[in-house]
């Protein structure tokens, strides 16, 4: 049974019939929220309902928009672990530092969550052809879930997208195209092709359901922390669905009365100074972000110079008492290496930006050293070979080993 009542524009509030296919609001071209009958949900769905359910995102089915479970397209999206990082915490001088490791999901990143929901709803609507612009991991996830559903997939990505992402799209049978531009250029092509090719656009926030998949990050961590949320969440921000989805999850859990406290985490939106539209808008006190010119970062997932949900990200950050900031691009490899060497956690370059933000915010006093701090590792470092430069010593087996160098 679905508890969805309608769709609602996040900007102008216009309502839409949830039984029909929609992309953006037709009035203002902004994203749509999925809205639920939370009072009825509160009566029918309790914490006890979770007992004995599989440890996947579908344990929260009543809080998701799929009407018929038979339409679920899944690769078993497991509940991802929260790892306490004591050695890394000591490096930063904090008492409680946790990493929620999204690399454990089927396609190696948090994008599995959003695409599982988007493709499930596409299946429910009878859609057979889908398209997406991608900076990398979203394309790989979409290709995998479309293949699982037997759908035709079209993917458009910048030429310099990590090679692993290109190959996983190809292997999954998606029609994959390289574009001599940024993800915004890829998005324009997808938009222009809707009429000519008849595909459904599953771009970030240009359909209502990927955000519902990302929302499960917030539902999971709340349950994992026994319904008492951390004080601070640091999240790498490109299109922003993860941060927005979690903030939506916390509001819905609050309405259901599941949280032990009304206090919400400070949401920290983290970007590289090579592509920082949200951080710039926050610093300037603006609600809508200007396009970031000449965007460049090895953290391909956050190389999004213009996000259609910019105001949704900035609203969530401000409502939470958090901040949006950018830290030096040049520091990304150092943070990746630090996390892996201290904890054995292979952080993706996007998440490395969060460590830079943590360093800055601790020095500013925005984050307290006694806070419970959670960082999302949104993908596996192994998917970014171009971002990792190794400095290894070689041994020549034709010569004696020089032990003094070892």
Order of helices and strands: EEEHEHEHEHEHEHEHEHEHHEHHE
**The top level CATH class name of the domain at 82-108 and 211-387:** Alpha Beta
Q: What is the number of helical segments per DSSP (H or I, 4+ residues)?
A: 12
Task: Please identify, by name, the CATH architecture of the domain at 82-108 and 211-387.
Answer: 3-Layer(aba) Sandwich
Give me the CATH fold name of the domain at 82-108 and 211-387.
Rossmann fold
The 3D shape can be described as globular
Look at the helices and sheets and give the structural class. alpha/beta
Radius of gyration, CA atoms, in whole angstroms: 21 Å
Biggest β-sheet description = 6 strands, mixed
The helicity comes to 25-40%
**Residue ranges: pLDDT <50 for 5 or more in a row?**
none
Beta percentage is 15-25%
